[in-house]
Task: inverse folding
């Protein structure tokens, strides 16, 4: 009786594992996540392709799960850096641009009203290196600066570091870590004197959070559509879906949908910038 | 097979009977030994895998893994002192906060008059044990953090999260475990000695400090060991409230600032995204595995401590 | 001196009152904040736009699938541990140490090892079966302790009488012990499943995703949503009011599920007389 | 009683078929390491007989019973050197498994031990492991057994009730019936009536007397009146200074049981097997 039960259990598992998996796995950046989730909802209803999305771990997790084939698509909100290429040397990444966006330095509305309006890149560098620790020096109230740094794996962090340090090496300084954009935004709102890197789209949606303009050699640049497209705003970035293997038809449908008018509308609804044919 | 010298009138059935005397290996016994062997083998090989994989991190880092606090996996430097300190400090502090509550609470409950009230309070505390840790994390992040931020912001608490918040949350989580273990040992001891002690004219408090506490010490210590093991191994709730700041040591801003502000523990590091990121870089992965090994050794150490102590008197 | 004694006594009662107040306030907060949006539709319909609206249908189903597969794998293992404990005396000491060791391994380490084994080595990716197996490993120790205590509670004359009736070891096991172990087995199983349902750390890397998975259609690359993971993700991120309500009600829901699963334990806890068995302390803890 | 072609395939000999000696003990030495407890030899138990065993408590009467049905071997503290023949076959011979031996030798304990199942399931507990019986055979066996031990009219309507609700006397008879289901060759009884009230004891003694007509019964008892009431041999376990451990001798005349201080004759020791 005991053996028969075990035998039937074994058979059951064998049958289950032989079926090919139908759904598409997508892992990666929480910036790109909402677009793909919305697209998945629409595709699920009419094309009956089920897409599984997970944003745990950010862009780096997207690339690593693509390399380990635990996902078919990686979502990254940064360029594929040399270091990534070196790290995943055996994997050939093909990027599919689905939109563009920018990273902005964000503070709570209360702090903004108290006088902190913009920062220069050098000031940003000193904040990051904990040389400036009080808002008083930047025209704000006497409040300790609390830098909420994006988790090391996140695309937003790499764009921020590339803009501030360019090709130079990045000093390893430990900061308070925040994971997804949603968490960064909620923590900045609740922490007096907090500042963090956040995607512009997320910042504009929520009145409780204010975007700081970046003044580069004296000229104040606000991250609006024009400055991002023309790359004048230093922390502009593209949003990619990355694949490592030739796409099967389910995956092609998803990509075509994202490039279609409806797909790009979703990108715009979330505050990101559409893909213009000319700025491929 | 003839049985000689046997009563003549036996019929054939008796012979049939004795024929099946040969040794028959029971299927259940084989199956159980196989399964138990398989599971033990799996856990042993997992442990050996852990040791083998983390050994090269130990070789490479050597003692600096334990003595320095510069965990920057980008620059391949893995000093994990801050992580060890974080785990130990949160676990010890949670025990310190929780000990009076569980100890004196259990003793007060033991002296309650009405049986009904006693059982219902005990059941209530046991119910707390079955609340999942993620719900405690939720309570921590939504209620405890803002509350502590208001009260301690004067003393330099920047964000609500930190080692103190984590310790308070952990002490709430391990309270039921400690409470019920200590209650069990108190009820056993007082059932045995209470009548005699009170008839000698001792007051309840004297009875507690002179008999129940000393005799119950092994049980109390073993419950602390269990509580420590559990607090050190807790991940999700601590991950939500500890603030996740790497390489923070009390030497920089003093113990007050260290406790009030964010830090990092082994479990929150293991629970973070680094496991995903470490997929392709063996160095990073083996450093994380060394962390996991130390955590396992710590909790198995405390639970074997529990075994030896509880074998003592309880 | 008498004043000090009375003072201490009152102090203890105050501490007890505080503990009870803490426990009551914990549960009442959960109920007050969780009740408003906890309605049938919240349980029945699937999640919509990343937790801001819709229900938690697939999260609940996912969690139930995980603990069900945990039960299926844990039962034969616990039964074999109990059989070996009962019939092979020289195995007793090592078995107890193995169970204690398994019981004290932190769940995040189990999750990490499972990730390396299932997700990477066997490249299953995220699969519900890996989650089930890991939860089974977490359920086995406390379930085996329940069975072993159940055996110990039986009067010793049973085994002698059964032997004198000529029952072989197998017959005794299947005809006498297993029927008598059903009650401790059920209480133990539900108690440990209740705790496993609330676990998040092990399934973090191995079995759960935040969006998209419905019911799995295979083993490889078939993650499953789960309620604790849902709460874990949402509690980090969402601060919008409507997401907050959903968060509170899913927290209340997971607590209700755990309590319903652990009801048999509390039922027996309540009316059995207070003879705590040897491994009682381990059953309470993870 | 069952005849030889009855469905039950254990030592189901027809009572008339049982002649000669059921159990022949050539040598039996049982010791717990420091000292030797039992040192019996040359004892014989004829096929259909009643042998009562008396002796002061702690002399090893119960141990003796547990050696015969090989229960004592499972206790690591005891070391046993035994040369016992059951129906001509040495009990340790590889041809005869422990389980089979115990099916042919029933054991009744002092405290009746019923399993927490229904009366019917308790009764058939032993036989179900020995042999597959059909529903009708089982119910007719149950009825026959309960009538045999005089329990049928008391429990025939409560067969599916939990056996633990029965009285101690009823439980003891249920245990006897449960052993009888296997139709054992020998029935070992370890002070069956010591925890029973007087009139149940009489009923049990009556039952023992009738059973001794069909099979060999070895009864361990303290109760001297019980021995006087029962017709059958009496063995006394005693220790004198020169013997290492307990040895046995038989009381020649029944009168001994009247005056306790009677002197025992020497030649009873030389009970020679035929």
Result:
């Amino acid at each position: 009786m005991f053996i028969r039960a075990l035998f039937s259990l074994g058979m059951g598992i064998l049958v289950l594992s032989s079926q090919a998996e139908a759904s598409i796995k997508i892992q990666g950046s929480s910036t790109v996540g909402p677009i793909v989730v919305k697209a998945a909802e629409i595709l699920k209803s009419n094309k009956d392709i089920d897409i599984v999305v997970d944003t745990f771990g950010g862009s780096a997790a997207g690339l690593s799960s693509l390399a380990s084939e635990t996902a078919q698509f990686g979502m990254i909100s940064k360029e594929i850096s040399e270091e990534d290429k070196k790290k995943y040397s055996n994997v050939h990444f093909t990027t599919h641009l689905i939109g563009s966006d920018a990273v902005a330095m964000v503070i709570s509305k209360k702090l903004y009203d108290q006088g902190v309006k913009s920062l220069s890149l050098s000031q940003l560098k000193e904040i990051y290196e904990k040389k400036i620790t009080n808002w008083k020096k930047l025209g704000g109230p006497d409040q300790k600066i609390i830098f909420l740094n994006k988790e090391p794996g996140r695309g937003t962090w790499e764009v921020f570091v590339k803009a501030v340090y360019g090709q130079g090496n990045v000093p390893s300084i430990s900061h308070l870590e925040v994971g997804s954009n949603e968490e960064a935004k909620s923590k900045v709102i609740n922490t007096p004197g907090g500042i963090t890197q956040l995607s512009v789209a997320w910042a504009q949606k929520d009145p409780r959070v204010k975007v700081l303009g970046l003044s580069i050699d004296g000229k104040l640049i606000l991250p609006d559509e024009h400055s991002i497209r023309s790359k004048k705003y230093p922390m502009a970035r593209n949003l990619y879906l990355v694949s490592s293997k030739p796409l099967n038809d389910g995956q092609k449908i998803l990509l075509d949908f994202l490039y279609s008018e409806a797909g790009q509308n979703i990108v715009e609804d979330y505050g990101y910038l559409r893909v213009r044919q000319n700025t491929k | 097979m003839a049985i000689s010298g046997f009563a003549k009138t036996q019929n054939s059935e008796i012979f049939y009977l004795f024929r099946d005397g040969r040794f028959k290996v029971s299927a259940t016994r084989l199956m159980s030994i196989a399964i138990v062997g398989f599971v033990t083998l799996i856990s042993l090989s997992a442990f050996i895998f852990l040791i083998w994989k983390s050994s090269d991190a130990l070789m490479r880092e050597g003692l600096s893994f334990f003595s320095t606090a510069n965990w920057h996996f980008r620059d391949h430097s893995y000093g994990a002192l801050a992580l060890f300190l974080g785990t130990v400090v949160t676990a010890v502090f949670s025990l310190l906060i929780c000990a009076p509550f569980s100890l004196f609470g259990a003793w007060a409950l033991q002296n309650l008059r009405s049986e009904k009230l006693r059982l219902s309070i005990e059941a209530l505390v046991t119910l707390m044990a079955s609340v999942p840790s993620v719900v405690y994390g939720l309570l921590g992040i939504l209620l405890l953090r803002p509350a502590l931020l208001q009260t301690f912001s004067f003393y330099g608490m920047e964000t609500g999260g930190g080692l103190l918040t984590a310790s308070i949350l952990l002490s709430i989580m391990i309270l039921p475990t400690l409470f019920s273990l200590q209650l069990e040992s108190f009820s056993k001891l007082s059932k045995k000695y209470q009548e005699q002690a009170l008839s000698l004219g001792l007051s309840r408090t004297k009875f507690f400090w002179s008999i129940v506490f000393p005799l119950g010490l092994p049980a109390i210590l073993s419950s602390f060991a269990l509580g420590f093991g559990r607090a050190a191994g807790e991940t999700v709730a601590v991950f939500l409230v500890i603030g996740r700041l790497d390489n923070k040591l009390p030497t920089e801003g003093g113990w007050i600032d260290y406790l009030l502000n964010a830090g990092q523990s082994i479990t929150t590091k293991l629970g973070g995204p680094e496991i995903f990121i470490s997929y392709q870089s063996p160095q990073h992965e083996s450093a994380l595995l060394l962390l996991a090994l130390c955590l396992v050794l710590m909790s198995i150490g405390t639970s074997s401590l529990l075994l030896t102590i509880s074998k003592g008197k309880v | 001196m008498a004043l000090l004694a009375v003072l201490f006594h009152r102090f203890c009662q105050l501490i007890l009152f505080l503990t009870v107040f803490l426990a009551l306030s914990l549960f009442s907060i959960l109920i007050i904040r969780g009740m408003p949006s906890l309605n049938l539709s919240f349980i029945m319909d699937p999640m919509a736009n990343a937790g801001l609206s819709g229900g938690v249908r697939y999260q609940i189903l996912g969690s139930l699938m995980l603990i069900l597969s945990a039960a299926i794998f844990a039962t034969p293992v616990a039964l074999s541990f109990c059989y070996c404990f009962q019939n092979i005396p020289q195995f007793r000491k090592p078995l107890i140490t193995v169970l204690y060791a398994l019981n004290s391994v932190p769940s995040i380490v189990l999750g990490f090892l499972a990730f390396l084994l299932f997700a990477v080595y066997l490249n299953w990716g995220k699969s519900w079966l890996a989650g089930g197996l890991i939860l089974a490993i977490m359920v086995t120790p406390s379930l085996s302790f329940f069975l072993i205590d159940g055996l110990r509670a039986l009067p010793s004359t049973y085994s002698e009488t059964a032997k004198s009736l000529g029952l072989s070891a197998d017959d005794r096991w299947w005809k006498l012990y297993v029927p008598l172990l059903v009650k401790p087995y059920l209480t133990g199983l539900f108690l440990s499943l209740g705790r496993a349902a609330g676990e998040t750390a092990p399934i973090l890397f191995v079995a759960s995703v935040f969006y998209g998975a419905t019911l799995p259609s295979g083993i490889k690359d078939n993650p499953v949503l789960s309620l604790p993971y849902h709460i874990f993700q949402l509690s980090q991120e969402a601060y919008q009011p409507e997401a907050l309500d959903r968060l509170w009600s899913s927290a209340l829901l997971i607590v209700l599920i755990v309590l319903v699963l652990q009801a048999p334990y509390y039922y027996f806890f309540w009316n059995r007389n207070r003879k705590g068995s040897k491994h009682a302390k381990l059953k309470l803890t993870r | 009683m069952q005849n030889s072609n009855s469905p039950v395939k254990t030592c189901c000999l027809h009572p008339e078929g049982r002649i000669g000696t059921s159990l022949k003990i050539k040598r039996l030495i049982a010791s717990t390491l420091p000292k030797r407890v039992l040192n019996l030899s040359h004892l014989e138990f004829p096929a259909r007989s009643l042998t009562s065993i008396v002796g002061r408590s702690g002399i090893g009467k119960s141990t003796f019973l547990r050696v015969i049905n090989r229960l004592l071997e499972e206790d690591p503290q005891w070391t046993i050197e035994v040369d016992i023949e059951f129906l001509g076959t040495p009990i340790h011979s590889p041809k005869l498994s422990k389980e089979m031996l115990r099916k042919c030798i029933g054991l009744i304990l002092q405290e009746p031990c019923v399993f927490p199942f229904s009366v019917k399931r308790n009764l058939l507990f032993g036989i179900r492991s020995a042999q597959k019986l059909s529903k009708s055979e089982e119910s007719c066996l149950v009825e026959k057994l309960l009538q045999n031990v005089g329990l049928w009219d008391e429990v025939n309507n409560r067969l599916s009730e939990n056996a633990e609700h029965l009285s101690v006397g009823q439980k003891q008879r249920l245990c006897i019936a449960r052993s009888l289901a296997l139709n054992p060759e020998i029935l070992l009884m370890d002070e069956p009536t010591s925890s029973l009230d007087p009139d149940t004891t009489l009923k049990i003694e009556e039952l023992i007397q009738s059973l001794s007509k069909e099979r060999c019964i070895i009864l361990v008892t303290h109760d001297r009146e019980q021995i006087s009431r029962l017709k059958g041999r009496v063995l006394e376990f005693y220790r004198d200074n020169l013997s290492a451990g307990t040895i046995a001798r038989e009381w020649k005349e029944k009168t001994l049981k009247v005056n306790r201080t009677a002197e025992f004759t020497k030649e009873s020791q030389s009970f020679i097997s035929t």
Summary: The CA atoms of residues 77 and 177 of chain D lie 32 Å apart.
